[in-house]
Design brief:
The complex is a heterodimer of chains A (about 425) and B (about 300). Chain A is α/β, with parallel strands linked by helices and about 425 residues long. Chain A has three domains: about 210 residues, P-loop containing nucleotide triphosphate hydrolases (Rossmann fold); about 35 residues, no CATH class; about 130 residues, Distorted Sandwich (Coagulation Factor XIII, Chain A, domain 1), CATH 2.70.50. Chain A is built from ten helices and 18 strands. In chain A, the strands form four sheets. Chain A has a six-stranded mixed beta sheet with strand order 5-6-7-3-8-9, sandwiched between helices. In chain A, helix 4 crosses helix 5, helix 4 crosses helix 6 and helix 5 packs across helix 6. Chain A is globular and about 80 Å long. Chain B is mainly alpha-helical. Chain B has one domain. Chain B contains twelve helices and three strands; from the N terminus they run βββαααααααααααα. The radius of gyration of chain B is 26 Å and the shape is elongated. Classes of the chains: A alpha/beta (about 425), B mainly alpha (about 300). At the A-B interface, strand 1, helix 1, helix 3, strand 4 and helix 4 of A face strand 2, strand 3, helix 2, helix 5 and helix 12 of B.
């Protein structure tokens, strides 16, 4: 395997409070130094006794050249510490990292920007801090200015910049780094939506450009779009690593406590009433496998199992889909399975709704399930947020995103037919416009 | 219906925040894996405390050192009305005050040189030294955002703070020329020693700055102790008075101050006076010992800067 980054049993220990209680005073050190010999006599050592935590524990993985690896995990899982170890900002307590290429790390945009310096001066300063040579910066200078769209203000001190201009300039410099290995932290968390789009676009261009990228983000859509492989960190250890869908699905189910399958075996807690009771809900694919993560091109099935306890009612299952912004994307009603006007008998039922591929937008969808009688109107149960799944849109070119790599707004993302008529004769168009 | 084929679009071409690129152009495919070096370029491991300074690495980052110095110089007199004149005003006005109080009122001797000239020649290295030590001593703390976000040899930060002070020293030097003409003091070959003593001052300032800056990361007490320490150091250095002002029995004490040989060295170079080679040798040896110790301490503490700053 051609690993460009090899991480072997890396551990990092912090003394508790070290990151919070920033410094000790001289007096404390002097008194503890004076006391130290006595403590040693008693077999105690203050350092050994102070509580420690392992921010990273025996972390090992490899990244092949040209690969884009994503790192996800809860806050405090050790992601930032790992990036800091890889970018040589902090030393590991034990273990070893081998880097077979030039590394640039982007843990923040605009590191080292000085407010008193002009845009031009900051480009050179920031470039040098990020590891660019002077000649390299000079060569890319025009490109950087154009990317940042700040031509008119290039000789103005950046303290007079709007925050948008500042961030654009900062990112423009970083975007023109050409390391073999690029380490990027949550930079997408800053800036407005427009800026985030631009970041993502540039990032995937970098990844496609054959460079190795290590990318930490909370943005699952971005991760699934950019990365080929993902590592899930939890409490400082590698909890899972593998293909994007698998790891993200696992992560989301643990974070949101919502899964592709839920059941209510206990009569007392099962949603429902004396007429009908919900038994289970399941998200699955064509192969009938339960899924938490689905490709945007695949069709998705929501399977609902319920039990009818009292006969003679018309019961209509319905499903409510909400996206991560809390927007109701759509509601599905079973009006064509033959049970639309037909009274149910006592027994167990399984109803499956199929959502076609190339229809949903990427992101997390939460499904609520209900069974309703319409005449007279009665809701037997409505189980909110019963199951959830993630739709991922990888950049393979045959989904509705085509070759576009940025963020696409909208609650659905269908593929529709397009027709383009062509004629070299412009008058034809003009006559139609009139 | 006629579909025109997609033209290849430049990576950096961004239209309304939408970037397009050819999804599978061959030149954009990854590097040939066989081009990877056989040995890692960088190995990250817990370092041993006896690691000495990595000259090769400092050399590789020389451009950054240049930019950091350049930044300090650029920023220092931004938005000041008098600008770089401050580099002259500081020692010049101190000289005037010293001349009135010590030269005239207290009658402090000045080794056969007019007292104002004597004081100014002492204030040149002293102003540089005290500013360099103060700035570099606080440099790591004020660069906390760099230290926690980017890797580069940390020694560059205090080094740049010292380096940028050299420009002020050069500016302050321009005043000594009219002063010497005014007092009719001429120079001879002794002036050739000036670069040596300037180098020694820089190295000493760098050593003290390195040590204090590292200490400052862990103990913020340094920030309070520093101005106080500098003030005391001024009085035990021969800036206001010549070393010969002390009784012969106690003179060796002031020679233990590495600044003594240096300050006297400036005067000897400028005013044709005999060099006190022993004092210079003591300063040199002390500076070398201090710089070794400072580097060792710095390298030892450097590993934890990002964790505790």
């Amino acid at each position: 395997m051609n690993a460009i980054v090899r991480v072997q049993n890396v551990s990092k220990q912090f003394r508790i409070g070290e990151r919070e209680a920033l410094y000790e005073t001289l007096r404390e050190t002097i008194t503890s130094t004076v006391r130290a010999p006595f403590r040693k006599l008693k077999g105690l050592n203050s350092k050994r006794n102070s509580p420690t935590i392992w921010a990273l524990k025996d972390v090992s993985f490899e990244i092949s050249a040209g690969e884009t690896l994503g790192i996800i995990g809860h806050n405090g899982a050790g992601k930032s510490t790992l990036l800091k170890v890889l970018s040589r900002i902090t030393q590991p307590t034990s273990g070893r990292v081998e880097l077979y290429g030039r590394v640039a790390s982007l843990l923040e945009v605009g590191t080292g920007f000085h407010p008193e310096l002009t845009g031009k001066e900051n480009i050179f300063l920031n470039g040098a801090i990020l590891g660019m040579r002077k000649s390299e910066i000079r060569q890319k200078f025009d490109e950087i200015v154009a990317f940042a769209e700040i031509d008119a203000f290039i000789d103005t001190p950046v303290k007079y910049y709007s925050s948008g201009m500042y961030v654009r300039l900062a990112f423009a410099v970083a975007a023109h780094l050409e390391p073999e290995i690029l380490i990027v932290d949550e930079v997408l968390a800053v800036g407005d939506a427009e800026f985030q789009k631009k970041c993502l676009g540039k990032m995937s261009a970098v990844a496609k450009g054959g460079r190795t990228v290590l990318f930490v983000s909370h943005n699952m859509s971005a991760i699934s779009r950019l990365c080929s492989r993902v590592i899930l960190l939890g409490h400082g250890v590698v909890e899972r690593q593998g293909p994007v869908h698998d790891v993200i699905g696992h992560y989301l189910s643990s974070v949101f406590n919502s899964v592709g399958f839920r059941s209510w075996p206990d009569d007392a807690t099962a949603p429902g009433n004396g007429i009908v009771r919900l038994r289970s809900l399941r998200v699955h694919d064509k192969a009938n496998e339960t899924r938490e993560t689905l490709d945007i091109r695949q069709s998705v099935a929501i399977e609902m199992q319920y039990e009818v306890l009292s006969p003679g009612h018309v019961l209509i299952p319905n499903l409510h889909f909400y996206n991560e912004h809390g927007v109701c994307v759509f509601v599905l009603h079973d009006f064509n399975s033959g049970w639309r006007r037909r009274s149910r008998e006592i027994g167990a039922y399984t109803t499956t709704a199929w959502i076609p591929g190339n229809f949903l937008a990427e992101g997390r969808l939460t499904v609520g399930a209900a069974i309703t009688t319409y005449t007279p109107m009665h809701i037997h149960f409505y189980e909110q947020d019963a199951v959830a799944f993630q739709v991922v849109d990888s950049l393979e070119g045959d989904s509705a995103r085509g070759d576009y790599v940025g963020h696409i707004p909208g609650v659905v993302r269908p593929i529709v037919d397009w027709n383009t008529a062509f004629s070299p004769d412009r008058e034809l168009l003009e006559s139609r416009v009139k | 219906m006629d579909l025109t084929t997609d033209k290849k679009v430049d990576d950096s071409q961004i239209t309304n925040g939408i970037s397009s690129y050819p999804s599978s152009a061959p030149e954009l495919l990854g590097p040939n894996p066989s081009t990877l070096p056989a040995h890692p370029l960088v190995t990250i491991e817990p370092s041993k405390s006896w690691d000495v300074i990595d000259i090769g690495e400092i050399w590789a980052y020389r451009e950054l050192l240049y930019f950091l110095i350049w930044r300090d110089v650029k920023v220092r007199y931004k938005q000041t009305a008098l600008g770089a004149a401050w580099a002259i005003i500081q020692p010049l006005f101190t000289m005037v005050i010293f001349t009135i109080f010590f030269g005239r009122l207290a009658g402090v001797p000045s080794n056969n040189v007019p007292y104002p000239l004597f004081a100014y020649a002492g204030l040149l290295p002293w102003t540089f030294f005290s500013n360099a030590v103060t700035n570099s001593g606080n440099s790591l703390i004020s660069s906390a955002n760099l230290i926690t976000k980017v890797y580069f040899p940390r020694t560059l930060i205090p080094a740049a703070a010292v380096g940028s002070g050299l420009l002020d020293l050069a500016i302050a030097f321009t005043i000594i020329v009219p002063l010497m003409i005014y007092y009719r003091v001429s120079v001879n070959w002794h002036i050739l020693m000036l670069p040596v003593v300037i180098f020694l001052t820089t190295l000493l300032a760098l050593s003290v700055g390195l040590w204090l800056s590292a200490l400052n990361v862990k103990f913020r007490d340094v920030r309070f102790a520093l101005p106080f320490l500098i003030q005391l150091w001024l009085f035990v250095s021969p800036v206001i008075y010549p070393a010969s002002f002390l009784p012969a029995r106690a003179r060796w004490l002031i020679w233990l101050n590495p600044m003594t040989g240096i300050i006297e060295g400036y005067r000897s170079s400028l005013f044709n006076q005999p060099f006190n080679w022993i004092a210079l040798a003591i300063s040199t040896v002390l500076t070398i010992i201090l710089s070794t110790y400072a580097l060792y301490t710095f390298r030892k503490m450097e590993k934890r800067f990002a964790d505790i700053i």
